[in-house]
Design brief:
2 domains; Na+/H+ antiporter like fold; about 425 residues
Length: about 425
């Protein structure tokens, strides 16, 4: 299928789903889009079972989308830049300690806890998944998704400090999650029983610190360029060029694209590009990137729904999905509770907030993209199926009930 036709069909389908949700269903944007996309995919699969000949007409779009490459190499940079550019950096600095702990130790704890629990529970049900693949599953599903988080918490009643912590954590924890994912993936493919800590350390330093430095340098250059002009069209082009250049250079140098883009967005958004008090370029640029964010969000979640058509049939589909959901919620809760137990004064988070932070830790397209990028193995479909169930549950169920959890967890005095 021609590239333009794929893009055109994606936009058309996204517009139709968005209209149906806005006109009839009236669920919060992201939740409504995912729900409609899943229902359409289920109907498509059912019709295909009844008449396989219809498949080529109904699934052509889904089968021609390279979801993993599209999300990780194209869409992710724009979505992360949009989220970081509009983030309140003053609030982020105030909550930097809990953001840092949860986006580093939290992800590592969650990966280890999820891997161990998933291995134990699946063994009880006589589903054999090697422990190292359980940890690989944990590495790709543990980081909270900044796209899903940003889309859901816009309509939530989260306290300001928790909203900042959750948004900041979701922007930064992808770097740690990706390093863990790549490290464990290389371990599964090496056939070795020993982990090369020197190689792992070099990989971590290059990915994380290289991405941070690249983002700050490119963000500074772009900011200085935008600061010297008032032509809005040129300012927009510079911001687009910033995201694209970072993605290209970071991929070439094996730096973390998510961390580089987030750092660039935070740096460029932290200071105004307005030349004087009467000029509103910065505000207009924020609105432009908010529009890009909302449009790409819609397309991304339509793609998530469409990709269900490509899922292989598994006898243990629902069991694997249910186990995955149960285990990731426990791992998320423990990965917050453990640091809080030992570092409560440092984190400045109350125990009553743990349930909110757990339920607001949503997963999205990044986890599915990483699962789809896994090389062929007997366990790939199990990880992929589990990822889909976790993502769909987190977006729809956790997204719809987040405000109830917030109301139940916050005391009348607001604490």
């Amino acid at each position: 299928m021609d590239l333009f036709v794929i893009i055109a069909l994606l936009v058309i389908v996204s517009a139709i789903y968005s209209y149906i949700n806005a006109r009839f269903i009236k669920l919060p944007g992201t939740i409504g889009i995912v729900t409609i996309a899943i229902l359409v995919s289920v109907i498509t699969i059912t019709i295909d079972k009844l008449n396989p000949g219809i498949e080529r007409y109904l699934t052509l779009l889904a089968k021609n989308i390279n979801f993993s490459s599209t999300v990780l190499n194209i869409m992710l940079g724009f979505l992360l830049f949009s989220g970081s550019f509009s983030l309140n950096t003053k609030r982020l600095k105030k909550e930097m300690r809990p953001v840092f702990i949860l986006s580093t130790l939290g992800v590592i704890f969650s990966t280890a806890i999820f891997g161990g629990l998933f291995y134990g529970v699946t063994t009880l049900f006589h589903i054999h998944v090697p422990l190292v693949y359980c940890f690989l599953f944990g590495a790709l599903i543990s980081p909270t998704d900044p796209v899903a988080v940003g889309a859901i918490i816009k309509n939530s009643k989260l306290p300001v400090n928790l909203e900042t912590i959750i948004s900041g954590e979701s922007l930064f924890n992808d770097g740690i999650g990706l390093v863990l994912f790549i490290t464990i993936l290389e371990f599964t493919q090496s056939g070795s029983d020993k982990l090369d800590f020197a190689k792992t350390s070099i990989l971590f330093i290059r990915e994380v610190f290289g991405g941070i430095i690249l983002g700050i340098v490119f963000g500074f250059i772009a900011f200085r360029l935008m600061k010297t002009i008032t032509d809005f069209q040129t300012i927009v082009l510079v911001s687009l060029a910033l995201v694209m250049s970072i993605s290209v250079v970071a991929a070439f140098m094996d730096f973390s694209i998510p961390l580089a883009v987030v750092c660039a967005g935070l740096f460029a958004g932290n200071q105004t590009i307005n030349i004087d008090s009467t000029e509103h370029s910065h505000q207009a640029l924020e609105k432009f990137w908010q529009l890009i964010d909302e449009m790409l969000n819609t397309i991304l979640f339509v793609m998530i729904g469409l990709q269900m058509i490509n899922l292989p049939y598994l006898n243990n589909y629902w069991l694997i999905g249910g186990v995955g959901i149960f285990v990731i919620l426990i791992a998320r809760w423990l990965s917050i509770s453990l640091p809080l137990t030992f570092l409560r004064r440092t984190l400045n988070i109350s125990y009553s907030s743990v349930n909110i932070l757990t339920w607001a830790g949503l997963r999205g397209g990044i986890s599915i993209a990483l699962a789809l990028s896994l090389p062929a193995s007997p366990y790939r479909h199990i990880i992929l199926a589990g990822s889909y169930f976790i993502v769909i549950f987190s977006v729809i169920v956790q997204g719809l009930t987040l405000n109830r959890v917030i109301n139940a967890s916050i005391k009348p005095d607001g604490k």
